Amino acid sequence: MKRLVSLAILSAALACGTAHAQMTDGVIKIGVMNDMSGTYADLAGPGSVVAAQMAVEDFGAAAKGLKVEIVGADHQNKPDVGSNVVRQWIDVDKVDVIVDVPTSSVALAVNEIVRQKNKVFLISGAAASNLTGDKCAPTTVHWTYDTWALANGTGNAIVKTGGKNWFFLTADYAFGHALERDTAAVVEKNGGKVLGRVRHPFPATDFSSFLLQAQSSKAQIIGLANAGADTTTAIKQAAEFGIVRGGQNLAALLIFLTDIKALGLETAQGLVFTEAWYWDMNDANRDFAKKFSERSKGLYPSMVQAGVYSAVTHYLKAVHELKSDADGGAVVAKMKSMPTDDKLFGKGTIREDGRKIHPMYLFEVKKPSESKGPWDLYKVRATIPAEEAFRPMKDGGCSLVKG
Amino acid sequence: MFEIFGIPSQALFGQLLIGLINGSFYALLSLGLAVIFGMLNIINFAHGAQYMMGAFAAFFLLNYAGLNYWFALVLVPFMVGAFGVVIERLFLQRLYKLDHLYGLLLTFGLALIIEGVFRNNFGSSGLPYRVPPTLQGGQNLGFMFLPNYRAWVIVASLLVCISTWYVIERTRLGANLRAATENPTLVRAFGINVPRMITLTYGFGVALAAFAGVMAAPIYNVSPQMGSHLIIVVFAVVVIGGMGSILGAIVTGFGLGVIEGLTKVFFPEASNTVIFIIMAIVLLIRPAGLFGRRA
After folding, report:
1. What would the pLDDT profile of A157-196 be if each residue is shown by its tens digit?
2. Which of A172, A205, A236 lies at the smallest CB-CB distance from B230?
3. Which CATH superfamily is domain A7-145+281-358 in?
4. Contact B269 A259 (CB under 8 A)
């Protein structure tokens, strides 16, 4: 029922035409591809296009003599659709950089195409930690978060407060498998046990059957290794089936701002989860969120959209210094050699394997009584420092890492 | 406690019951489709969108008019049904003489437009809707915890299904309706307003979808794509039951819910595909469907 929506948006950067002779066809063309109409459309979707536009404007591309154009497309969460779009973008439309791409199965396909074509791939939406592990590429930067970081944040916090026995409800595709694998590793490393798992189709509408299986496993913690509407439906139905009242707890391993909003605080309160960014943490974020919501029908930015902003900003810096966007490998090498610094993610670095490094945060959903507005949803429980937040480079098995 | 194929019998009973509950949604939705196809010969692809409109209408009534679930259950089918009547008057009535394909294309296009409008205005992550207070909590059946709301879903959908079947197959009104489908000219000669009857029938089919939407709001995700996730499965149900067969739609709806539920235990990865495998087999053996009459 979805359809490829290809929106071509000319950015505000209408530049003078002299200083960019080395840019391929004179323009830096940014392709934002994600789920524009399905379950992930609010957390990425058109909002990611808006975030990319804001990055281009704030960078002052026009004043610096860079001509930047942004295009968007819907991959419908299907690897074949996504691959076709990216091939056409690179071969016909001369797109220089692919941004966002939630849904790990699509991201893994795009990762290979971009590597072959030597363009640049900046991942914000996708989660599978394989993208900087066994599937790492010299043309890829994995920006916002990954399954290892989520597992490390949420898994650790829960096991340390006594949640030793786990049962997983896993979305049956690359992302769910990666999240389950990384979380199970954290649980077992801390002396916990995985009692069982069930892999559900993506997307699924009813979880009662899977929840019943989780219930009869008698596990203390039911780990939800899924995302978007799958997670919110599972949480909603777990409340209905009295899972939490029965003494079992839910661990939403990946949940976004828009999901919590959809659930409502009444149902979501008390959930503990890991994210890279939240709009209400400092003035710069709040200011960004305000401007963003004015341009996206009142939606507040998710960490994925903030990550798009931050990644595009750093990309433009690198291309501006190099004065060329032609060689994807060279652009990413430049991005890795420069420290990152932008108003949303602050100072950070990009590792050899393509992993962007910054702190992660353990959040808790507020009680309805604590919330002061429709988007006032999180409180910070803990900060996971940058050096502990992501998988050590030696454990990833990335071929780019020497030694 | 004994085991069946390595699954404790208690868990199995639970799964059977869950299958029946999901089956009641399939039955309600495929019933509406079967009524519309049987009486109007229109393949109503907008059914999923109308189901979604039902759920959203319940949300609006609660949040903007302060009317709770029970009011919604009564009012929403009329509201969305009226919308269906408008669609029938404006578009569908011009298509009855043409090939099925035109009706299918028109309703498919309408579904895309309706979904697009809702997504544009309300986003894709969904809206919160809570189980009504009187139906919160649940019963411990020994082999499983049955939420009161789910029990209500089975009862309500069985009631609606059986009464619909009764009206169409066993009353004078239903007889007129069936006669009008067979031979509209003759029925008109008896002084019955056939076009109005057809319009109301479409409105009723749409109202059934909206009713299912209200039933779904407290337990599923109220989002613009909720209908499109379900509609393909529901079409498979209708095809297996036999296009246009009321009884077929009801029985297959519940039956396939149970089969899907069991698949979720034994081979969860295949639970989205099992219905289509059954559809392929049924079409090979009985091309008109299990309850269909050969044309």
Report:
1. 999 988 999 999 999 999 999 999 999 999 999 999 999 9
2. A205
3. Response regulator (3.40.50.2300)
4. no
